[in-house]
Description:
The protein is an alpha+beta fold.
Amino acid sequence: MRLRMRSLAGAFSLAAAALFLVPVSAHATPVWGTSLGADVADYTGSLSTGWGGGLKLRGSGSGNIAWAITDNGNGSLHYSYTLTTTAKNRISHFILDLSDNCTAVGSCFGNLAVAAPDSFGATEFGTYSSANGNPLMPGTIIGVKLDSTESKDGIFAFAFDSNRMPMWGDFYSKGGNPLREESKGFAVWNAGLANHADTNIAHYIPVPDTVVVGPPTHTKVPEPPSYLILGAGLFGMVLLRRRKRV
């Protein structure tokens, strides 16, 4: 009985050691500007307001932003975003973080389409902060601004194509004036915009990176690391040998 207990204790010790070989994805470093990875077969997600939510909204109501990124199969990706707010107010503009060298409509940002019945008046590229018509904006965004939108129901949806892989970035949008019209105006942004040292992926949205899409744009699920397989094999061998001794 004592020998069997010692055998089990040794097996558990080896199992614990094997667990330390398993790679754990920790985010001890800031994630803003980092890649989402190589598998771009289908990226979907969303951020929402509320307790612990990654979306910040000041003013009236609550909100949600959802996205989907799909492979066009021609060396480009299709990015789509939908901003939904409960404040039934006209959305003034939407600013999306882009790589600093994406400064005009082209392969990095093209084929822009806004879902009906919404529309927009202009596409502008630049650096945006609270100093240039973005009240309560807690940081700076270098990217594209869809200006003079015609969404009057608090919902704005648009899509575009890009030859860039996705990275974690920012956005900002507003409806009315949240400083003067608190009952119906609002400003909304992702939580990470306030502090790019934030290490929580759930505080950012995916945006086009500087890295160009290359064939293939998606990969298979990676196989377990060889050292993990080796550790599992050694664990099984030890159990078998100890059982034979007993």
